Amino acid sequence: MTLESMEPGDWNGDDDVLAALGRDGLTYLVWGADWCGDCREQLPAFAAALDAAGVPADRIEQFPVDDDKQGEGVDAYGIEFIPTVVVERDGEEIARFVEEEPEGIAAYLSDRIAAADADEAPANADD
Question: Which CATH number fits the domain that encloses residue 86?
Answer without folding.
Answer: 3.40.30.10
